[in-house]
Amino acid sequence: MSLYAEVTARRRRQALFDVLVILWIVVWGLVGWVVHRQAVDSASGARRLQEGGTGVATSLSDAGESLSTIPLIGDTAKKPFDEAADAGRQISDAGQSIVDGLDALGALLGTLTAALPIAMAVLIWAYVRMRYARAASRAVTHRERPGGAQILALQALVLGATGIEEALATDRPGADHGFHVLGDSATVRRLADARLGALGLHPLPPSS
């Protein structure tokens, strides 16, 4: 399959198009990453809440353990600290849930932000390149087959091609440029070369 033209100028334009598509993908990938990072950074308050809750729970739990060693009243004195430590752990868990939720939201927003423009670019690139590849591959096959020049000439007449006016030029006044021109080998060759040139391919070999 001919993904790229044989003529340098056309091939360079195709390569430039590829580079632009790659740059587009990179740019939108970075945009998606920035959106994700902003969502993650917005969770800094929730992280402080989670860390503070954990610190408070640890401190209160340690204090309760120290009080539990007091004879007779140790267990009674420890209970309020344990309850407060549990509340601190609940605060820590709530902060962690917020952090996890913002991380997931950031990943989703970043993906959605980048995915649509990237998918559109890839689909457009694939459509343009595959359409060209099919047409160019068929043209190359016709160019190399005996009698393929007539098919290329017919395609030039039906689809249009740059240089078709020159290919049909004639010195006969009032000449009709209908499909009967395919009976003229010189005109067929010019039309076939016009079709090949429109696809950025080399003309028919001299022996055709």
UniProtKB/TrEMBL annotation:
This is Transmembrane protein. The chain crosses the membrane at residues 15-35, 104-128. Keywords: Membrane, Transmembrane, Transmembrane helix. The lineage of its organism: Bacteria, Bacillati, Actinomycetota, Actinomycetes, Micrococcales. It comes from the Bacteria.
